[in-house]
Amino acid sequence: MNARSLFLLVFALSLTACSQPTETYDRTLYTFGTLATVQIYDLPRDEAIEIADQIELRLSVLNRDWYAWGDGELGQLNRTLADAEQAPVSDLLGSLIKRSLELRDLSGGRFDPAVGSLVELWGFHDSKTTPVRKPADQDIRSDGSTLGVSVTGENGSQIVVTGRTGIVIDLGGIAKGAALAECARLLRAAGARRALVNLGGDLIALTEEGGPEFRIGIQNPRAEDIAGLILASDGEAVVSSGDYERFFDSDEQRFHHIIDPETGYPSAGAVAVTVIDKDPLLADAAATALMVAGPDAFYLVSKDLGIENAALIDQSGTLYLTDAMQARLVDARARGDEAVLP
Ligand code: FAD
Ligand code: MG
Asked: If you count Cβ atoms within 10 Å of the first and of the last residue's Cβ in the chain, which end, N or C, has fewer?
């Protein structure tokens, strides 16, 4: 068992590179309801600008099409499913939903994109327009399950919901991971070998073979300090979920945006989770699932999802680490690196 008392660790990311590149191109943009940065270290400035433009354009399309409450494809799909049991879907969105359903199964239903109606009920779907408040207990129904939803048709061209209407599919728990995969693909295609994309704290690192890893400082969720440190190598995504970003406190209780589909209430037990994996979609869904799993099911759900590197901090400040994650944290410290504030 890898639980130990936490006095200096973790969560919500900040980062810096190990070595200073001769020329770094840096683009900041607002997308997916958060700030994003694209840093390209090894391309001439004009090429870096071109690829950053491509990424910005791609992210703006995904931002429109994957937002459950927007005017793009997923918003339209949800509006159709409000009173229909099936709807057409594009290959890209269909495959993302299909993957989400597989991860729902692997996580024992803890990650489930059908939480959309509950996320909306709690008011966490849009930080700008919705006053966030605790809904009446009788309105909180734990029917947020995608069981009965399937992606069918030739090339997965249809979403079918068996036996009910009104499902709201919310990909907020996996979309940033999927977008990071797209960014990495675009960067590699443009010949970038050293780059970092950070979507509101979820990031992916590209490093040249044998080149220095990125040093990722992980912030304490309850304080303005960084103590955890890991090194991210080529293709690794570092993804965090927690109760410290979209939340409100009421009657000395914290209500946050990660909903336990079984109860309909914000998950209890975990304060923050960080997952590292070469599959950014998996890392994103897993971080959300492990928040719901809490410390009791942390090791079991990590294993079921095939996640080797994960860390969880619970309400009392106890840190839970998978064996591989523990080795990485120790390794980073052994190398004498110092955490760097954002
Ligand atoms: P994660 O832990 O990765 O995901 C948590 C989010 O997943 C929740 O916010 C909820 O949406 C969903 N979720 C909750 N519980 C579960 C569960 N058990 N299983 C599966 N999913 C769950 N926010 C705005 O305020 N304005 C915007 O314009 C806006 N645009 C967006 C556009 C896109 C394409 C996306 C994907 C998100 C957008 N958001 C926007 C933010 C979004 O509503 C979420 O807050 C955000 O995705 C949370 O991501 P995270 O990485 O912080 O947390
Ligand atoms: Mg997630």
From this structure: N
340 DSSP assignment:
-
Cα→Cα distances 136→139, 247, 263, Å: 5, 17, 14
- Residue 253 makes CB contacts below 8 A (sequence gap 6+) with none
pLDDT at 336: 53
Q: What angle do CA 214, 270, 116 make, to 5 degrees?
A: 90
Taking the whole predicted model, whether its pTM rises above 0.85 is answered as yes
Of 313, 307, 318, nearest in space to 106 by CA = 307
What does the pLDDT look like over 316-332, one tens digit per residue?
A: 988 899 999 998 876 55
Q: Is 117 left (phi over 0), alpha (psi -120 to 50) or beta?
A: alpha
For residue 107, give the ligand nearest its CA: 1
Q: Which residues contact 221 (CB under 8 A, 6 or more apart)?
A: 10, 11, 12, 242, 243, 244, 271, 272, 313
Distance of CA 321 from the midpoint of ligand 1 (Å): 25
Nearest ligand 1 atom to the CA of 63 is 34
Among protein residues, the one with the nearest Cα to ligand 1's atom 44 is: 172
Phi, psi of 14 (to 5 degrees): -140, 160
Is pLDDT larger for residue 313 or for residue 15?
Answer: 313
Distance 34 CA to ligand 1 centre (A): 10
Measured from the alpha carbon of residue 286, the closest ligand is: 2
